Sequence to fold (929 residues):
Amino acid sequence: MNGPPDGDALVRPWASAPEAILAALGVDPDRGLDPSEVAQRRRACGPNQLALPERRSVWSLVVAQFESVVVALLAAAALLSLALGQTLEGAAIGVVLVTNAVIGFATERHAVRSMEALRALARTEATVRRDRRVVRIPADELVPGDVVLVEAGDVVGADLRLFEASKLQANEAALTGESMPVEKRVEPVVADAPLEERACCFYQGTAVARGAGEGVVVATGMATELGKISALVETARPEATPLEKRIERLGRRLVGVTLALAVLVGAVGIAGGREPWLVIETAIALAVATVPEGLPIVATLALARGLWRMARRRALVEELAAVETLGSTSLILCDKTGTLTENRMTATALVLASGEVAIGGTGLATRGGFTRAGRDVDPRGEPDLREALEIAVLCSGASLHDAGPGAEPEAVGDPTEVALLVAGAKAGLRREDLLRERPEVREVAFDPEVRMMATVHAEPGGYFYALKGSPEALLELCSRVRGASGVHALDAGERSRWIAHNRALAARGLRCLAVASKRSAGALDDPFRDAVWAGVFALLDPPRASVRAALQSCRAAGIRVAMVTGDQAPTARTVAEAVGLLDPACAGDAGVVDARAFERFASLPAGELERVLGASVVARASPKQKLELIALFQGRGEIVAMTGDGVNDAPALRQADIGVAMGLRGTQVAREAAAMVLQDDELGTIVAAVEEGRAIFANLRKFVLYLLSCNASEILVVGLASLASAPLPILPLQILFLNLVTDVFPAVALGAGEGDAQLMQRPPRAAREEILGRREWRAIALHAVLITAAVLGAMALASLGLGMDLDHATSVSFLTLASAQLWHVFNMREAGTRVFRNEITRNPWIWGALALCAALLLSAAYAPGLRDVLDVHDPGLRGWAVVLGLGALPTLAVQLAAAAASRRQARSVSGAYRARAAVAQAPRPRDWS
Fold:
């Protein structure tokens, strides 16, 4: 059973009054369910989970291994061999296909299960009232009858019947297809109302777009509307990523090259009078040599390992395409609160008309005093101080509970509101106590457009309105101010003084939040009209100590970082200077832009637009302006990563090339809109993810370069011998063995590497940069020519110099090719790195792969069964000397050439440095102007 308890009112909860629903569920909305009732209902209804997406079956993974065009070509070669009576060759190709499929299956299964495990880490949470306490729980623990508190940014975890709503709007596109948010209210609707007209209900999977409210759970799991739909939907197989598509295109091109080479060699062979079987054997050998069987396997493994490395570094990425884009990131637009700062708000001061009051204590500690000009102040004897604190405590959606002696209080809610509750607790003001004296009857939820909120409370003789919000916005709506001697008119001069107070606090890096109040005979008045100004709280959010190092890493990597925040420009500037984002020597408005001065960035004159796009800090930016900024940067070719936490950040997170949501303080809407979720909200984690993205692409390029250069050498060896009508230096079965052994294992090791230590010392690559550019293709040609020369030289030396017969000479050339390919792994190091200390030599997987391949090659030469199948003969000591010497020669030549190039570059840089120094030290003419 996955539904609510029986009851007529629960059949169509949208048609019944809230009181009837609460009565049917047997729950008091002010108390919520107690633990024993929760346990009983969970046993009866089961967990609040939808049917899990069908896991990819083992059989589907097996079939997927044979869907590649590369595999199709090899299968055709096997069938052709069998049709011509070459059973051994056909069977060998079949063995290679099966072995390749086994390795591919194991790799892809690991990748698929890894993705499933990563998705399980991202759990939706819900804020509920249980046993009179507000707590956060995983959404899958909700049961029918739970009282759920929702606010903007939440993703609803079960079907709810609302009984309180303040400016509440929902985004129900996931269920109804309606793209615009819909208004929500508590009044029932007709029984036959369609889903999109049930304004008093919230449904699982929909998002709270605005406002706040409370509702009771009426359905969970598969009994929800989303559960009913999901039961009808089959999970679609994910589309291949751009990188996987590029690899597939590369494979198709190689098939085309293979067919062209086979036709050419076949035509030359037939024209030269060679036997038809020899021509076909050579064509099959070319086909086998061209196809890089390990390419799809290693690509899958590299991406899967990259995802897990990111997860270990506290960055969750579900989309493989995002992994590819991360390595190209050139600009990070980050928020201030929680990313550059610790998001541990502490109210440090309260500015009243009677003067500034300092508030002692830090964090969640409720011990701390109040002082004015160094003297202790008792809030009980200061009416204006007490009223400001009461307003801050009442006007809140957060909660603060004692956790026992010596333990830090338990807090739920926005860190700013929690800080105000802590400040009130220091004066002995607890929200639950104040609510008993002044019950809350209405809430006007926070509106990001006006940056204010209010709560309305019943009191003897009328209603008390508690208001808080942005100082600039709230000050405009207040007509009076509370001072030490009472309430008086708020004139223009005093308004200017309060604006100056606000600027002075912001310049100290403090976040400012104003409070005000009013009394009225009715509960439905406009709360922000004719209000009484009470004062301004100053809150400290210390800069993160780790940000400065992260910014330095970004600069070294060629990544620009800019702060885009809704906070005031002075506050943002102070924080930017503290973390090293902005040079304190920058005078005036240099590097800082106040977005309120501009309606639209795109319509600005060129000079003004350059100032905005070149700023290190964009303050008071609205969600719409953030979206516009991203589009402008993208139009200039930047790859933009954007951080966000609120529901209003969701459009910008989707617009950015990499949307980064905050896992600790971010809303569920933001997390679902983003491509990456930070589990620690650290800027350094974004930098680490970018580094992993770069490492993944570099690994992909390394193993593709390695595989193709090895295969190109095999093509040249077979092709040149065929064109010269000479004996084949390497046989088709030997090529199959090499492609299975020396190609796959070293390539897998290259794909598993952690990257070059200097990876973040280089500028980001272009987003559309291909895996193989001109430089890589030239390298493939060079390596292939060198290896081919070594193999043909070894065969010539063995047959002519050492007098070996054809079988032994072919064995020497085969082993030389294998040796050269193993040595070739060390050519994959990054340019400019040390010969003996680099990302290749530090990779333990490389050494393991080389040891395994060496053992398999020795088995090919000496194991009784294998050597007969491969037709390999013991080369003897002299033969092994040729194999080891000429096999290492191509790598030695490449390393010597690289060392010479590095020395030339160093001399060039040194010469340029000396020239600049000489110019700097030369006497300069005096400026008489």
